[in-house]
TrEMBL record:
Phylogenetic lineage: Eukaryota, Metazoa, Chordata, Craniata, Vertebrata
Entry protein name: Solute carrier family 2, facilitated glucose transporter member 5
Annotated membrane topology: Multi-pass membrane protein
Record-linked PROSITE patterns: MFS, SUGAR_TRANSPORT_2
Keywords for the protein's UniProt record, in alphabetical order: Cell membrane, Membrane, Sugar transport, Transmembrane, Transmembrane helix, Transport
Species of origin: Neolamprologus brichardi
Chief location category: membrane
Annotated ranges, domain Major facilitator superfamily (MFS) profile: 18-461
Subcellular location: Cell membrane, Sarcolemma; Cell membrane
Similarity comment: family membership: Belongs to the major facilitator superfamily. Sugar transporter (TC 2.A.1.1) family. Glucose transporter subfamily.
Protein's GO biological process: D-glucose import; dehydroascorbic acid transport; fructose import across plasma membrane
Length: 503
């Protein structure tokens, strides 16, 4: 291929592509989690008023709480639906176009939320939350895949982890926008729920200017020239032959293979431990109880003894903690590795859950214990951000090949959203039933997750897919070492530049 018609790029292109995809992608997940805290009492009053106007029925407090819980938790069911359709969408439309089309759900949801108050319909809020959930479910699956396939190997973990950084930033942004002084007041709650359209609009205006995933272009589309152009734009220099060789090798390994269906992975012994790992870690990410703090932040801090007028500022601290921790994890993940960050994060969460339980047990006997309980919530979230929050999303990209990757993300996303729904529904009852022992089940889950990661999950830092597959082969086919044939080594040395004439 000659230089004529080749598109030039800059290292800044990759950074801007990450920002564009994330602003309308995983940022929406964190933002839409956080904005539901501020208008709780206002929407509950709206629900009660609506029933009174329509049917002249005054709802009991528990009935209003039930409707509100459904509105909050139905977001998770939307996310589950989004996770299921994300795989087929990425195969049919590609990673970038899938993110762009995803904004249809978001804009429809924003319109419903904006007009719900005028229409006197809390059902419109429910439908809006389902659509926002679908949007988040798609972006939580597609965006890490897009980043993992577009990043150079030595930065793959850090760039994929940026999805978690933007999720945490979305939480902080949602908490700030939800302050009473901004959009968290009674006259403005419908504008708060519809404000998620702004990040989506930014993505629609910017993402079309960036390239598609190079791996998708070559392996799925078979377009080598487009792949090379995309790599050149994303790297800002000529394509290194070692990187192109790795993609070509994966293309050769998956040649003639169609994209896997999720149910096929359950019967494929060659991906057994990859699938088990993704399912366990994706489930643990939600069953650890971290996101429940965002759903019911005010409730947790009230139990911890924080005054009502200070709770909205205390909740901003939770988002800031996770945002800070995700940035730290982003800086450390390529140094310490995925397994260290995951196991370390779950271990620290176990420790702080135990301290939190002890502090809650003595808060009525020792005056300063309420501040320790609040500190434990912050440190718990910090520990979550340091490992599980970001590394979980990287794993399907690194341990599954191109044919199985969309199905793996569908399964991982489904486990995440289903468990988020379950925890969202039972967490208020855990708090009221177990009271000071409400974090004991979460501590047990975190401890078991840390043990699994430490004992069974191979390290993937800086390794090619072929090397990672060999390591999982030892788990999948114990005693059958000859089953997995040696992979062909690259034709070029690492760092050698593949000249345009050779391409």
């Amino acid at each position: 291929m000659s230089h004529a018609g080749a598109q030039k790029g800059s290292p800044l292109t990759l950074v801007l592509m990450i920002a564009s995809a994330s602003i309308g992608g995983t940022l929406q997940y964190g933002y839409n989690l956080a904005i539901m805290n501020a208008p709780t009492t206002f929407i509950q009053s709206f629900i009660n008023e609506t029933f009174l106007e329509r049917w002249d029925v005054q709802l009991e407090e528990y009935q209003v709480t039930l409707v509100w819980t459904i509105i909050v938790s139905i977001f998770s069911l939307g996310g589950f639906a989004g996770a299921l359709i994300a795989g087929p969408m990425t195969i049919r439309f590609g990673r970038k176009k899938c993110l762009l089309l995803n904004n249809i759900f978001l804009m429809t949801a924003a319109l419903l939320a904006l007009t719900s108050r005028t229409a006197r319909s809390f059902e419109m809020i429910m439908i809006s939350r389902v659509l926002v959930g679908i949007n988040a479910g798609i972006s939580m699956n597609v965006q890490p895949m897009y980043f993992g396939e577009s990043a150079p190997k030595h930065l793959r973990g850090a760039i994929s982890l940026s999805s978690a950084v933007f999720t945490a930033f979305g939480v902080v942004l949602g908490q700030v926008v939800g302050l009473r002084e901004i959009l968290g007041s009674e006259p403005c709650w419908q504008y708060l729920l519809a404000s998620n359209a702004i990040p989506g609009l930014i993505q629609l205006l910017t993402l079309p200017w960036f390239p598609e995933s190079p791996r998708y272009l070559l392996i799925d589309r078979g377009d080598k020239e487009a792949c090379i152009n995309a790599l050149r734009r994303l790297r800002g220099c000529e394509v290194q032959s070692s990187e192109l060789d790795e993609i070509l090798q994966e293309q050769a390994e998956t040649k003639g293979m169609r994209a896997s269906h999720p149910w096929e992975l359950f019967t494929d012994r060659s991906v057994r431990w990859q699938l088990i790992s993704v399912m366990i870690i994706s489930s643990a990410m939600q069953l650890c109880g971290n996101d429940s703090i965002y759903f019911y932040a005010s409730y947790v801090f009230k139990e911890a003894g924080i005054p009502d007028d200070k709770i909205q500022y205390a909740t901003i601290g939770t988002g800031t903690c996770e945002f800070t921790a995700c940035i730290m994890c982003n800086l450390l993940v390529e140094r310490k590795g995925r397994r260290f960050m995951l196991a370390g994060g779950f271990t620290l969460m176990t420790f702080w859950a135990v301290v939190f339980t002890i502090a809650l047990s003595f808060e009525h006997h020792i005056t300063w214990m309420s501040y320790l309980t609040m500190t434990c919530v912050y440190t718990y979230i910090l520990s979550f951000g340091m490992g599980p929050a970001g590394v979980t999303g990287i794993l399907p990209t690194e341990i599954f090949n191109q044919a199985a990757r969309p199905a793996a993300y569908m399964i991982a996303g489904s486990m995440m959203w289903l468990n988020l729904f379950v925890v969202g529904m039972i967490f208020p009852f855990l708090v009221s039933g177990l009271r000071e022992y409400c974090f004991v089940p979460f501590a047990a889950i975190c401890l078991l997750s840390a043990l699994y990661v430490g004992l069974f999950l191979p390290e993937t830092k800086g390794k090619s897919l072929s090397v990672i597959m060999r390591e999982f082969h030892r788990l999948n086919f114990k005693g059958q070492e000859n089953h997995f044939e040696a992979q062909t080594k690259p034709q070029y040395q690492l760092g050698e530049v593949c000249l345009s004439t050779a391409l």
